[in-house]
Amino acid sequence: MNSLGLSLIFKMGCLCSKETIVINDRKYTVLEHLGEGGFSTVLLVEDCTLHKKYAIKKITCHGPEDQRLAVKEVEYHSIVRHPNVIELIDSTHQGTADPVVNATSEVLLVLPYYHKGTLAQELERRSKYNEYMGSIEILNMFLLICEGIKAFHETKPEPLAHRDLKTANIALGDGNVPIIMDLGSVAPARVKVCGNQAAHSLQELAAERCSMPYRAPELFNVESYCMVDERTDIWSLGCILYAMCYFKSPFDTVYERGDSVALAVISANITFSENAPYNEDMQNLILMMLKVNPMERPYIYSVIESAHEVLSRLEGRV
């Protein structure tokens, strides 16, 4: 992936010298260099006045298209405002990218720092001890993630899709409240694909920006004439709910073995561990989202309604 997953905010790196960064007259001291990807670096910083920790995502742009995407990322933060979506605290844009003279520009995003880490890290910790989360806890957390995604799907004048939903892109706030982060892959949700070139472009973009074990089938093999919509995110939500129950996406093991994730996703042969303490209602909720044909997949409203129904039945048994 060319965009650095914001999950790197939570990985401990080497200590850096006390470099300072100034963004719109506010000064930040760099505490740690947390990681870097194709075009971006994430730093743990402290506000020199407030002495509060933040994360700064520094996106390096090598050309006008990089610059456009980075500026769009900032714009999407201002469009999608929700308690379960990461807040952009501040941002700035420095320089102009010009590949002819090898000049780069930078877009800097100041973001909250979540010391509890990500849902992926929490699930990895739990997997070592087979420490399953309770069904009610899972559904309450999942519904908050869904509410955050609904904010993307309800934007006007057209819906947006996150396009890289995964457990590593969900931070855990106070009380383990899930926060959807990394808006680097966000795009208009509804794409009318007309012709081979358009199909190839969308497939390439998905390969670059959407993590394989959570990527919807229609993005692996984009048809020449089709409509792609916000239900790409619903597939990813199904993978997230599966991971919350069984510690990993249903396609993580395939990916780790080096086998074809595309083939596994398109065949969608989903199996459930018999050792896990989850009933058929939970499994059916997962399968409802993991429909290979996107036209058979529900919209976010139906997912929320079904999750509430399962939760009500579980709470009725307590």
Report on this structure.
There is one protein chain. The chain has 318 residues and is of the alpha+beta class. The chain folds into two domains: 6-112, Phosphorylase Kinase, domain 1 (2-Layer Sandwich); 119-317, Transferase(Phosphotransferase), domain 1, CATH 1.10.510. The protein is built from ten helices and twelve strands. It has helices at 64-79, 119-127, 135-153, 196-209, 217-220, 231-246, 252-257, 261-267, 280-289, 300-317; strands at residues 20-23, 26-36, 40-47, 53-61, 90-94, 105-112, 160-161, 170-172, 178-180, 187-188, 191-194, 225-228. It has a six-stranded antiparallel beta sheet. A two-stranded antiparallel ribbon has the order 7-10. Strands 8-9 form a two-stranded antiparallel sheet. Helix 3 runs antiparallel to helix 6 (231-246) and helix 3 (135-153) packs antiparallel against helix 10 (300-317). It is globular, with a radius of gyration of 20 Å. It starts with 19 loop residues before the first strand and ends with a helix. The relative contact order is 0.12.
Strand percentage lies at 15-25%
Helix content: 25-40%
- Strand segment tally: 12
Q: What is the rounded distance between the termini? A: 44 Å
What CATH architecture of the largest domain do you see? Orthogonal Bundle
